[in-house]
Sequence to fold (603 residues):
Amino acid sequence: MEQQAATPAYVIGVDYGTDSVRAVLVDARTGAETAQAVHNYARWKTLQFCNPARNQFRQHPLDYIEGLEAVVRRVAQQVPAAHILGLAVDTTGSTPGAVNEQGVALALTPGFENNPNAMFVLWKDHTALDEAAEINHKARTWGGEDYTKFEGGIYSSEWFWAKIMHVVREDAAVAQAAHSWMEHCDWLTLMLTGGDLASFKRSRCAAGHKAMWHESWGGLPSEEFLTHLEPKLAGLRDRLFHETYTADEVAGRLTEEWAQRLGLTTNTVVAVGSFDAHAGAVAGEIEAYSMVKVMGTSTCDIVVAPISEVGSHLVAGICGQVDGSVIPGMLGLEAGQSAFGDLLAWFRQILEWPLQNVLSNSKVLTPELQAALRDEMSDQLLVQLSEAAAAVDPAESHVLALDWVNGRRTPDANQALKGAIMNLTMGTNAPQIFRALVEAICYGSKQIVERFEQEGVPIKQVIGIGGVAKKSKFVMQTLADVLNRPIKIAVSEQAPALGSAMYAAVAAGIYSDVLTAQKAMGSGFAESYEPNPDRVADYQARYEQYQAFGRFVEATTLGSSVVVPGRDSASPRLHDTQNDSPKRGLAESLPGTTTLQHSHQAQ
Fold:
């Protein structure tokens, strides 16, 4: 039952991103964002417990806890605590961590405080490349159910089981001490509500997209399959979960401890956790066959479709299709790019090398002036690069880039792939390279749209949310031109947090369902980018060059074990580019040739 409108009703959405956490306090009656707060992770800022050269990215649970207290207390002070009826958390994913029998993260227990393997394994940690390849191979050859089929037919090193396998193989102490494992969004929700780990309500969104959970085979993959993957996983299935729950359901209420720490009350309802992109799609007012692009360090592309229309059709090469992962009662489909803003940030770091490593040796500037100059230039670099890149005549620059610096998430996950740049000359300058990088992330987006439509899922509109969508007109106009589609930009600066607030409003009984909450609390759209007809044909030609470049790089990437759908098979096949790919020249990979074979049939 929906609560009476006369009663003041506020909800809080908490959104954990890669670098920071933010909270929004929302008037659930109107959708007005009354207050917001952001907190950067202190340990992560200096990359403690990380090793970028090994693609190891770990986050300490204390960063999450400190951030939670900081942002929620700041927004909660704006209204009486009794008026805040609900709270929900979304996080990055897959970001799992080991916990003890009480659900406490191992890194918060004696002996594991500084052990990266006892911390949360961030979504972009790619240390489990070998394990992901092994999962893909064994899923097709073990003689039983192919548990990857609802994950797009390819399991990624970014996901739950691959990361757990890697950690338990690498660290015997963690393997022995870990009673269970939890996604970041589940762990926080359990911490806030207390209760029993065994009966805690785990996220359908997280389990379905990343842990191969599906109702058709009784939940998680079978014990037989998991021990076939890795004997050290024996017994873990029974210590995880069987049922999963959508993000509009009640997980519990705040404990006395956390009510005091956050400045709230024990009457505050806490909803089941979810992933940031899926919550953001709700705030982006997603509807059937819309694609909401959540654009930040990476992208997640979220589509929802009526289950009655998609049925049992499997979409190859995406990041899963899950009943109720976005809007209960509809099928949620996920895709995305492993690097979007991250690619542009990488180029900025390259250009800033002298600022970070040479400027400190200056005999002209004082340390204070050095710091001021460093900050000023860093703040202006991407702004001025964007202006200069927008002025580049595409006909005069032939620089072409691949956006795979974090590997490729979709279509056809392969985190072993690397980025590349071609057609550099002595006349190539920084704005031309920057423009090529922007074009590359847009071409990567186009491949995702094409994959959905080739697989029979139409994309009727594109909606942009997130930092890049709000801040970079150059990127968004280029994306509209490359896709040859209009792109609407959501108003909210904190769309995932607003989406979580909508989930909280349903869990708290303010609204009966997510669609009703979405209509009442949605903030609408700020602007729309229309494709420039004069650019479309040129970008199409360059897109075909991008595809040819990608085929060449993938065919020559050493150690790239990829599962790609076979043209003549109903199931994807394992393709080891190190052992059986011919080392073809780029000229042989021009448009029209086939290095990767995709099946656009249900598997």
Observations:
- The longest strand covers residues 20-27.
